[in-house]
Amino acid sequence: MTDRLINKVALITGGASGFGAGIADCFVREGARVMIADRDASAGKAKADALTQAGHEAAFVETDVADVASVKNAVATCVEALGRMDTMVANAGIGQRPCPVEELSDDELTRQFDINVKGVIWCCKEAVSQFRVQGSGNIVATASGIALTPRPKLLAYGAAKGAVVTFCKGLALELASEGIRVNALCPAVGDTPMIAEFMGGELSDAGKAQFRDALPMGRLITPRDVGEAAVFLASDSEAGTITGAAFAVDAGRCV
Ligand SMILES: NC(=O)c1ccc[n+]([C@@H]2O[C@H](COP(=O)([O-])OP(=O)(O)OC[C@H]3O[C@@H](n4cnc5c(N)ncnc54)[C@H](O)[C@@H]3O)[C@@H](O)[C@H]2O)c1
């Protein structure tokens, strides 16, 4: 299917890599114009350039989602360059190296909550201001399957992603009467660079196979899997009454 997001503009945080890059690919295929917002300037610019060279409309803005001024600038840049913002894809995030609760450090908790929780909240807050000016808009935030069925030794990451789901559900209710929808994607472990973090910092085929075999459908989640789900949730014609969902993209992991 194509053209489901024709005339729409999306800002995609973390769009330089992994799931965010897959979301960008699916959005432009459906006719959207996209602003890639990432703290990795060279990868983000390269992604926007590649989309442009493929005939799509895309741009890049360097953004740190943990910094509210930087998020404000990203939204303003998107509106200035592309004219509007119909979907905020609050996807940027960081992984965690597994550790038992006694070894959890204050630094790790702060990092997790600054980026994975406050980063999503700042993006939603700035998006709502823009949606009110336009009179429309929706939010797709990337949480995680871990928010639905927690895992041992990933407690800071799990708590952060749980907070994202609860925040999105509350915001969905707060904005429902205005027609602004808010949904959280909950992918299981994915085939992206982040998987190395969940393996303790070192990517290995054996580690990947272990993650894959733990999923009931026997395959890791791909950037395209997440991108297709994000397109559906962003599409008002298809998902017009879906709000407050914690939408699993998980090969059966959270059943
Ligand atoms: N890969 C998985 O197994 C998995 C599973 C469930 C959920 N998720 C979530 O999916 C989202 C995307 O992860 P991914 O797997 O594509 O990882 P990734 O590492 O491939 O991509 C993450 C992107 O976010 C960017 N980023 C990180 N911190 C940022 C910040 N402070 N400001 C702006 N950009 C920042 C990075 O530069 C990178 O481009 C994350 O929220 C992650 O928690 C990942």
Structure description:
The chain has 255 residues and is of the alpha/beta class. The protein has a single domain (9-189, 223-245), classed as NAD(P)-binding Rossmann-like Domain (Rossmann fold, 3-Layer(aba) Sandwich). The chain is 47% helix and 14% strand. The protein contains 9 helices and 7 strands.
What would CATH call the homologous superfamily? NAD(P)-binding Rossmann-like Domain
Helix content: 40-55%
Number of helices: 9
Share of β-strand residues: 5-15%
CATH class descriptor? Alpha Beta
Euclidean distance between termini CA atoms:
28 Å
> How many DSSP E strands?
7
Tell me the radius of gyration: 17 Å
The figure for the number of domains is 1
Poorly predicted tracts of residues: none
Return the structural class: alpha/beta
Write the layout of secondary structure elements.
Blueprint: E1 9-13, H1 18-29, E2 33-38, H2 41-53, E3 58-62, H3 68-82, E4 87-90, H4 106-134, E5 138-142, H5 155-175, E6 181-187, H6 195-198, H7 205-213, H8 223-234, H9 236-239, E7 246-249
Parallel strand pairs: 1-2, 1-4, 2-3, 4-5, 5-6, 6-7
Helix pairs in contact: 1-8, 3-4, 4-5
The structure holds nicotinamide-adenine-dinucleotide.
